[in-house]
Automatic annotation (TrEMBL):
The keyword Electron transport applies. Keywords: 4Fe-4S, Electron transport, Iron, Iron-sulfur, Metal-binding, Transport. GO terms for molecular function: 4 iron, 4 sulfur cluster binding; metal ion binding. This is 4Fe-4S ferredoxin-type domain-containing protein. It comes from the Bacteria. Residues 43-72, 73-100 form the 4Fe-4S ferredoxin-type domain.
Length: 100
């Protein structure tokens, strides 16, 4: 039970800013759906090596395997694999994923 309570506590909404528009992503919602509802197009994305700490939260969230990199080192996005779903934006707490 304690674990479930903890898991629920961690499921907070995430706020991201895209093209100057603030998007509130509720737990379980898809970033692309929230963006589409707000009329915001998800741009091509890249990782800012100055900000990325290699925590790998984004790689776990990326369904296409577009993000790669060693732990604790700056990651990168393979544009050929990225489908611009935006899920990585919601996972990166350091704001290291930015428009390409
Ligand atoms: S936008 Fe989607 S497909 Fe592209 S890198 Fe991020 S999580 Fe992966
Ligand atoms: S979530 Fe952000 S800091 Fe962590 S590896 Fe991905 S881009 Fe880097």
């Amino acid at each position: 039970m304690e674990r479930m309570a903890e898991a629920k506590k961690q499921q907070k909404e995430v706020v991201i800013t895209l093209n100057g528009v603030e998007l509130v992503i509720p737990p379980g919602a898809r970033v692309k759906d929230v963006a589409a509802a707000a009329g915001v197009e998800i741009p091509a994305l890249k990782v800012d090596p100055e900000k990325c700490k290699g925590c790998q939260m984004c790689t776990k969230a990326c369904e296409t395997g577009a993000i790669s990199g060693n732990k604790k080192e700056p990651h990168s996005i393979d544009q050929a694999l990225c489908i611009r779903c935006g899920e990585c934006l919601a996972k990166c707490k350091l704001g290291a994923i930015v428009p390409a």
